[in-house]
Amino acid sequence: MSHTDAAPAYRWRWAALIVILAGEIMDMLDALITAIAAPTIRADLGGSAGTVQWLTAGYTLAMAIGLITGGRLGDLYGRRRMFLVGAAGFTAASLLCGLAQSPGMLVGSRVAQGLFGALMLPQGLGMIKRMFPPKEVGTAFAAFGPVMGLSSVGGPVLAGWLTGADLFGTGWRMIFLINLPLGLAAVLAGLRYLPRDGGGDTTRLDLPGAALAALGAGLLVYPLVQGRELDWPAWIFALLALSVAVFGVFSWYETRRQRAGRDPLVIPGLFRKRGFTAGLLVGVVFFAGMTGFALVFSLYLQMGLGYSPLKAGLSQVPWSLGIIAGFGVAQAVQRFGRPVIHGGTAIMAAGVAAVALTLNIAGTGVGPWQLTPALLVCGIGMGLLMAPFFDIVVSGVEPHETGSASGTLTAVQQFGSALGAAVLGTVFFGLLGGQVATEAEHAAPALRDRLAAASVAAPQRDLIVDDLRACGRDRASAEDGAGVPESCVRLERDVTAAASAAPASAPAVRQAVGTAAERSAKEGFSDAMTVTLWVVVGMLGLTFLVTFLLPRHARPQEDAPGGGTADPVVPATA
Predict the structure, then answer these.
(1) What DSSP character marks residue 167?
(2) CB within 8 A of 80, min separation 6: which ones?
(3) Separation CA 549–CA 569 (nearest Å)
(4) Beta carbons of 295 and 421 less than 8 angstroms apart
(5) How far apart are CA 44 and CA 393, in angstroms?
(6) How large is the C-alpha radius of gyration of the chain?
(7) Taking the CA of residue 357 as centre, how many other CA atoms within 13 Å lie in the half-sphere pointing to its CB?
(8) What are the residue ranges of helices labelled H in 305-457?
(9) Distance (Å, rounded) from C-alpha 124 to C-alpha 549?
(10) Can you give the pLDDT at residue 278?
(11) Residue in 439, 495, 446 with CA at minimum distance from that of residue 467
(12) Sign of the torsion formed by the C-alpha atoms of 391, 394, 399 and 401
């Protein structure tokens, strides 16, 4: 029901808005926290590098799939009902995450979180439009900005603190268990304050279309995550090809469904609009780069530099503050339209390149303060890019297509995030073993000299150097993070033999090998991170070029359907 001048505003609208924002906070936090806690989770539960990627990709992929139909379920069965079901399911899935006893159970619970989150989040916008009179709608939507900003700043810090604090002996599990009181409060308050609506929209779900979209997305993301660990067998590439075919069938089916007079999942005509199609491509590439960068950088800080989870979270605060500042600047220059996206892309690319240069200059001893300027620039560019992006992309579609376009664009944002965790995670871990081995080779002459000074015979020196190189490569690329590669067992055996042959020099032998191993590991992580950062710069370069295909300006407010204001498109995560 729409507000008219004679219709009274919903009595509990501000309390209901707080409930809706609580759902947004839960999603925002859970989209950010696992990147910080992932190394600790892997050390506790085991699992491969792919498990680390799936913790992010599983959530965002499920969110992308669910968002396609989540809003329409609210139209059919009532937004209040679907919000409460989504919030309750999200809370229950969070409990399962906190109780997970295996990597598979945790990833499965993350997928459940994403699906229930996709059911919960779309309902808020529709309820706000129904509850608030026109003069207050803008104020209500403006509340999303500070919530997203505070969550982006506080999420990594909170995750780092909870992981390290080990409250009640829960360790990393508390990052999920903290959702229980928040989710329970949202459900109870929702029962009291959210407006009742009966649903009953005449549209019907396009379940075959949703199944085809989910299958195509899964066939694309799964090979990209698992391919490296499986050594890229032929069937992995067959799955990638099959994903393209499935998306082709999806396009054909949606066109056929619309011609038959039924409601398609996505209006096929949208893809014939150059600006919208370009916007989808920009969204996939940009959000893939953003999420992949966030995941890999967090892993590098902890696994490569040895930062604690809390220190890693605090190190990323400048990035989040930059995003907030970028959003603020974008409000002042939004009248320039598309050039703001170009400027944000260029600034963010400069920031990522500056991170790479900082790592190159400061080396493995780089500290948070040295990274701050580059991360701040990254964040400012990201905020500038994101602020006008959604409105500009949907400005090229017809008024009656806006709802489908907004839902598709938000789903593509999440799909891009899943793709980024898959692609950049695979690039990083794929490079890591070779880079560590290369750095061990570079350190070999100095290690030989130190072993010779410790009276280690030449044949034993050669064995230790070869073992160290193999151990570094195998440990960095091991499928099971908790296991000890055979090459590392062999290294320990040869070092013990060398120390036994010269007992007086045993401490010097072990110190020399330990120092060389630590240095080659850190240098290898830094090299892999640097190459990955330049891949991100390349992705931002592609984003810059494709942006030229977008409309130059967003649709003016007076052009919105019915002469009112256009619906804002709120990103599912920041």
Answers:
(1) G
(2) 123, 127, 190, 194, 195, 196, 197
(3) 20
(4) yes
(5) 43
(6) 26
(7) 11
(8) 309-315, 317-333, 338-362, 368-394, 402-453
(9) 31
(10) 87
(11) 495
(12) negative
Two tokens at 120? Answer: 């919960």
Q: Under a CB-based contact definition with an 8 Å cutoff, are residues 156 and 312 in contact? A: yes
**What's the whole-number average pLDDT of the chain?**
85
Indicate the pTM of the whole model. 0.86
- For the chain, list residues with pLDDT below 50: 1-6, 557-566, 574
HSE on the CB side for 552, CA within 13 Å?
1
pLDDT in the model for residue 395: 74
Residue closest to 521 by CA, chosen among 574, 472, 562? 472
Tell me the percentage of the chain whose pLDDT exceeds 70.
92
Q: At what angle are helices 49-77 and 402-453 packed, to 10 degrees? A: 170
CA distance 345 to 509: 50
Residue 559: predicted pLDDT? 44
Percentages helix, strand, coil for the chain (3-state, rounded to 5) are 85, 0, 15
The backbone torsions φ and ψ at residue 102, rounded to the nearest 5 degrees and listed phi first, read -150, 155
Task: Look at residues 326, 362, 23, 307 and name the one whose alpha carbon lies nearest to residue 157.
Answer: 307
CB contact at 8 A, 451 and 498: yes
Q: Report which residue type is found at 251.
A: S
Q: What is the pLDDT of residue 4?
A: 43
Cα–Cα distances in angstroms (integers) from residue 515 to residues 446, 511, 535, in the given order: 11, 6, 30
Among residues 379, 360, 380, the alpha carbon closest in space to that of 370 is found at 360
Cα dihedral 335, 341, 344, 349 in deg (nearest 10): -160
